[in-house]
Amino acid sequence: MWAGRRVVLGVSGGIASYKSCILARRLTEAGAAVDVALTQGAAEFVGPPTFEGLTGRPVLTSLWEQGKALAHVRLGQEAGVIIVAPATAHLIARVAQGLADDLLTALILARTAPLLIAPAMNDAMYARLETQANLAKLRADGVALVGPEIGALAEGPSQRPGRMSEPETIMAHGARLLRAGRLRGARVVVTAGPTRESIDPVRVVTNRSSGKMGYRMAEAAWERGAEVVLITGPVSLPDPVGVTVRRVESTEQLEQAVRAELPLADVLVMAAAPADFRPSNPSSGKRPRVDGALAVPMEPTSDVLDATRGVRKRGSMIVGFALETGDALAKGLAKLERKGLDLIVVNDALEPGAGFEKDTNRVALLSRNGTPEILPLQSKREVAEAILDRVEQTLGR
User: Fold this and answer.
1) What are 317-335's pLDDT values in tens digits?
2) 340-397 confidence digits (pLDDT tens)
3) Residues 6+ apart with CB under 8 A from 228
């Protein structure tokens, strides 16, 4: 994503500038060429040699550096994206008013690249009407904002926004600015993880799904500019940046959540692994082990894709998954036809390095009018990108 990209990292004078060092390092490690522009105040917190050591590139601090009279124009127009982190209340006010009284504000005003601002300041300063008016003006001008978050500030704990977003979050928003386009504005619903069906208040029937494939799908779709809703069963993964998360427990709850989202969804990616069976008569109390062998009568759960066919948005694209053991392609094709899918992602649960609880997958993509596309073993994020390429082609985006 970042390899070969030109990034301008603007740093203004706040205590959060120590996080900018981490951000500069992460971007550089990801392959970006990072040009750091410091305000005079920022240089009081972290000096130019630190950023030069982290990026391997010269650091700019002044409009008046000899031989760099047009650096602000060049940087503002050659960068793929400009990220300002931290952005103080003072810097935000100057940008909102179109001032160009130092290197950073001049290159922002001369830019042709998209601009991402990460505010960081005292919570009372952030809450002021003046600051909010400046932020509203930036949004109206097409500037992207990330944060601030609620958390500890330099002066102590706070229950109000003011803390700068973490470097990884800022990078995710920067990647969205660079990539957004073909799925921009589309509403994508992704399901992920297992469901659980109660045997009693303690025990459940479930499966080994980790949710990794669905979470990678949600991340990749959001990065491409989509509005993403992730409906997830119980997993131990962090929420993807920018994604709306809905949590469910049972297959019935999953069906209800999908049914609620489908009428507005341009794309449904059904990557969840709902339990196929549930106890017919779950117990209201825990059955002691001393009672001996336990027999649990089971009944099928509802088929979420089939049960929600009637509420699909006209013209939407429905992507299903088929995790099979043996004759996977034939079973996947039958499932595609039976459930009225546009695309199905098929993989064999016994394939080494693929399936549940792995970071990699080997899949085949089957559509109604095409021959199977067999993908090599690769990361689940790479699989997600390949699936979304097919989605964009089908939707004509």
Assistant:
1) 999 998 777 777 788 888 8
2) 899 999 887 667 766 677 788 888 898 887 778 888 999 999 999 999 999 998 886 5
3) 188, 189, 190, 218, 221, 222, 240, 242, 243, 244
What are the tens digits of pLDDT across the range 122-176? 989 999 999 999 999 999 999 999 989 888 777 777 788 889 999 999 999 999 9
Least confident of 206-210, 235-239, 252-256, 286-290: 286-290
AA identity, residue 322: A
> Is the CB of residue 222 less than 8 Å from the CB of residue 269?
no
**What 3-state class would DSSP assign to 36?**
strand
Provide CB contacts within 8 A for 218, sequence distance 6+.
188, 190, 192, 228, 230, 240, 243
Beta carbons of 43 and 78 less than 8 angstroms apart: no
Tell how strand 244-247 and strand 227-232 pair up: parallel
Question: CB-based burial of residue 270 (10 Å sphere; 0-12 exposed, 13-18 middle, 19+ buried)?
Answer: buried
Residue 68 · residue 112 · CB < 8 Å: no
**Would you put residue 141 in left (φ > 0), alpha (ψ -120 to 50) or beta?**
alpha
Q: What is the pTM of this model?
A: 0.87
Residues 137 and 267 grouped into a single domain? no
Tokens 């699936």 belong to 387
Q: Is the pLDDT of residue 67 over 70?
A: no
Domain that holds residue 106: 6-179
- Tally of structural domains, the chain: 2
Spatial distance between the Cα atoms of 71 and 239, rounded to a whole number of angstroms = 39
Q: Which residue has the tokens 């699989």?
A: 383
Q: Domain boundary residue among 137, 156, 179?
A: 179
Q: Does a structural domain hold residue 108?
A: yes
Active-site choice (207, 281, 361, 369): 207
CATH number for position 140: 3.40.50.1950
Which residue is listed with tokens 């001049």?
106
Q: Any catalytic annotation for residue 281?
A: no
Burial of 165 (0-12, 13-18, 19+ CB in 10 A): buried
